[in-house]
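Note to self: user wants both folds in one dump. Writing first protein now.
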Amino acid sequence: MVGFKATDVPPTATVKFLGAGTAACIADLITFPLDTAKVRMQIQGESKGPVQAMASTQYRGVLGTILTMVRTEGPRSLYNGLVAGLQRQMSFASVRIGLYDSVKQFYTKGSEHAGIGSRLLAGSTTGALAVAVAQPTDVVKVRFQAQARAGGGRRYQSTVDAYKTIAREEGFQGLWKGTSPNVARNAIVNCAELVTYDLIKDALLKANLITDDLPCHFTSAFGAGFCTTVIASPVDVVKTRYMNSALGQYSSAGHCALTMLQKEGPQAFFRSFMPSFLRLGSWNVVMFVTYEQLKRALTAACTSREAPF
């Protein structure tokens, strides 16, 4: 068997909290170029404004977007906003993923059996709570990914500069721009991602089709990534457009969605579906496999340290 063996000692809430944040950061490091390509394709076609990204550049497909960015802006452009992205994951994933089991137990009042309703409630709760904690990091990440280096000066020179500039030009509320669509998106994403992973994993184990090991985690994570992309893609596009918009361009997230529908049609809500799936699918696989292994490794380390000599 590859990886750490499962132990009889369940992981503590602290282990889950730290493990989730660390696993999410590792997944982000590996899949960040796909996320940047997704953002560029999502904002393509929006109205011209001071926050537009490369209006003259047309992106075609995932690979085409990545190659165009490398050719016109250099390879480092694929990692625009990485620092804010890692800040986001360490605070965001720790809450929405690391606290999921604890909140699920709260809703089931400690019962071993968790129904679909309890899982959905737990996913919605931790997803919304995570946004309340990490929204400013998400705004900065999206702004960095959207800005282009070619053909003019960059809007933000560093992560710290981005936080300061947004707060100075748009007020404190600028750092919380898009909170409503982000709460909706992450409640949906968390439910689709964690609940689907939970259900697929439970079904595989109960049917004795596979053991609680890497193949089980890989299969469950891949299925969760696909379901999440299908369900959350429209909200994700609106969230990205609204966060990246100029001050006053849209009066609300609903106005942003309505403008997209009127000017670009329903297909705009599924713009960049393929990079979204490639990113979410690969991110889920890396994150969940790493998370499961980290939980076992950290639990084993804590148990061995507490064990008497």
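First done. Writing the second protein, which came from a different request thread.
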Amino acid sequence: MALRNHSTITEFILLGLSVDSHVQVLLFVLFLGIYLFTIMGNLSMLLVIREDPHLHTPMYFFLSHLSFMDFCLSTAIVPKLLENLLSQSKTISVGGCLAQVFFVFDIGGTEVCLLSAMAYDRYAAICHPLLYGRVMNNQLYMQLVWGSWSLGFLDALINIPLTMNLDFCEAKIIHHYSCELPSLFPLSCSDVSTSLTVLVCSTLLHGGGTFFLIFFSYVRIVSTILSISSTSGRSKAFSTCSSHLTALSFFYGSAFLRYLMPTSGSPLELIFSIQYGVVTPLVNPLIYSLKNKEVKNALRRTLGKCLQ
């Protein structure tokens, strides 16, 4: 049923990042290195959080799921990019393209929800430190995590079936290195107005809801930090949420701008896609390890155990 309307087109062509063969070799080496470091970094974070009892707290439970999502997001995008950099045909089947669209949409939507849950966690820790254990109890943070996964899946479930029912005729060139939902609409010979409306509305609703929670949390956090009399106290309070703010700025803006801006094949689209789909999964483990004493100490303890 999913592919019955795609009989005239069985595959798409991904133009990628460059048509120069020498540049493609350099890009292959670059993105292979990025992918390997991404996998190692996120798997290391998962291992450290799992093995170190000091990190069995709500914040690091959220972080473990963030690392798993970054691992999945990078794996959904980069291997096909690497294959096409070495391939002459640079094709992807319609089914494979729709599968990639689904996983990127699902994981990206889940990550946005999780980042907003992490903002609420920082709000509870900074604004209500004495009540933190009661506010962010085991039941609540489990609900926030599984709610994030459910909302991401629901968002993908709303958008992707509409795309699966589109007809793709003669045009089959995607001016991109991966399949993303906005890039498929110009290739369809069906009416895409409904699909486009649903995409914009769901993105605004998804983004607006999570942005409101993040904005509310950080307004209260900043207000609380400014009310602290000592400079060292303000600095310590701010340092507890600086890693989250950095991760948020890397992913949030670029992902929503990519899905809301008109598809034109411009370099800006590629930059936004690379930032949220390739760069963010790479830098998140670095952000949370280099700027976090607890994680650095846990890494030393875990390495010590492994070397014994």
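Dump finished. Worth passing along: The longest helix spans residues 94-127.
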